[in-house]
Design goal:
644 residues, 5-stranded antiparallel beta sheet, 7-stranded antiparallel beta sheet, SpoIIE family protein phosphatase, transmembrane, HAMP_dom, transmembrane helix
Length: 644
Amino acid sequence: MKRYPIAFKLTFLILSCAFVIVAAIVAYNYVSSRDVILRQAEDNSRLLVDGTAGRIDSVLSGVQKVAENVAFSLEDATLTTREILELNRRVLANNPEIYGMAIAFEPYFLQPDKLYFAPYYFRSGGRIGFTMLGDAKYRYFYMDWYQIPKELGRSSWTEPYFDEGGGGVPMATYSVPFYRTVDGNSVFAGVVTADISLSRLQELVNSIRLYDSGFAFLLSRHGTFITHPDKNLVMNQTIFSLAEERGSRELRELGQRMLSGEAAFTSVGTLLSPKASYMFSDGLQNAGWTLGVVFPRDEMLADVVHLSRSMLLIGAAGFVLLVLVTVGIARRITRPLCELSASAREIASGNLDLRLPEIRANDEVGDLAESFKYMKTSLKEFIHDLTATTAAKERIESELRIAREIQMGILPKLFPAFPDRREFEVFASIEPAKEVGGDLYDFFFVDDTHFCFLVGDVSGKGVPAAFFMAVTKTLLKVVSERGLDPGDILTRVNADLSSENESCMFVTLFLAIMDIESGETRFANAGHNPPVFLPCGGKPEWIRPFGEPVAGIMEGMRYSTKTMTLKPGDLLFIYTDGVTEAMNPDGELFGDDRLMAMLAAENEPFAPKLVKDVGEAIRVFAKGAEQSDDITMLAMQFMGKCTP
């Protein structure tokens, strides 16, 4: 790693902070000013769009009302052909916002001998022209302006189109279906249309100006460009076809948002203009059209950019001045530090008699020099103490290793323990959580036909628990060999342990004596975990405790004895709480339920295999988590032919 002097780091950090502060000020000014400009632009564009949209909606609304009133009048079946023509012409003459108007009847409806009847009046050169729509080349009843309201049963605006058969100009048509009663039923009779010339709307939209190169455009409800500065787009493309032509997913999504009709102010980049731009769009109340206003970003933010550049130049000048001041201060501070650094390397090499440089500065550097002097003296003392401490630590670790070997040595660990005995099978294991532990197990013959086995758990961990465990094991074996019942054995051991027990340590114990000929087993429990009885061919069950306390605390406590008879193949599984309280990295306990489920899943359990299987299950469950308690297990199985 490349080395950098403190002077460099100090200068770099101070200047970096100064740079960040200046940059933050400039950025904050830019962002704040930009936000203000954007809000103003949004407000201005909203006013422009609302005003223009209101004027367009006013025109469209008037056209809609006229067409709907005419359609209502035509539901009167008494109108003659001449009256229908006069109504059409008079309405057009009195409504200058309408370019053309048609009353198109269903084939053969008005006149049974005529397929077409669709008089169309339109404006042409300041006068009102007339034509009768419908011939082999212009079957109006197949046109969108006729079919859509007929099928939907309601009024609708068409997409902008160039009507060659009618007015011959680009237009949009509002179509209103009308009905008449025939034989008591309402029957579709035809459609009233009112056309508006798009040239008037184009002039209205093109009059919108925002900044130097901003512009407005109008989309139909299906995205067709009704107005746009680029004449090649008007009536020729939709915003979606333009997106497909450019391969722009963003433009397609923009078109979808615009046609949703919701007012929105958003950044559109270069999707609609060669320059990065913003756009405000809003839907019209009528016709489902959308009006958008686009204005370039650089023109909108020109004043903000100019102000930010001025602030940046001022900040740069101040930054240069700060560089000069910082370099001078850093050199003055770091010169004595370099001298102390060289002295520290000498001390680190072992030269504790080095004479330190004289630094008389009355500041933190002077304090550091004094600290070096104190450090040199302390190091001499520390090295001397460390040598003695290391030797003592190694001696303690050696003694703990020997204590573990001694402790494990007093427990029977050679299996099979009695290879010449076929009446039973016993197997046990122990895993201390520390160098030495407080769990114990033992098994031995009391006489030729009675076999004693036990498991215990001393409170606490480490060396004290190990000593208490050794004392308990010794007492248990001595007292058991007197031929007493298990309850009497625990009673006498409790009396010995609780006498002058100033440390208040205690032990949980489960002790049983089995007649290896009959399988009769007498047992006592001093606050130990309930063992599990696994009958041959049956389900495992707990041997519930008697509710009697742990040993070593209460003097004069008497323990009771219970009896059960094991059949050939039956097994007793005894364990300490380190089994059920084994924990995985997630803090979950192995638990009684998991232990019982595993024992129940054992097929033809055998003592050695059972202990090993449980130990392996705990290891897999713990997933490498640190062991918190000693884990001890003993399985005692009465052997013989298993009977159902």
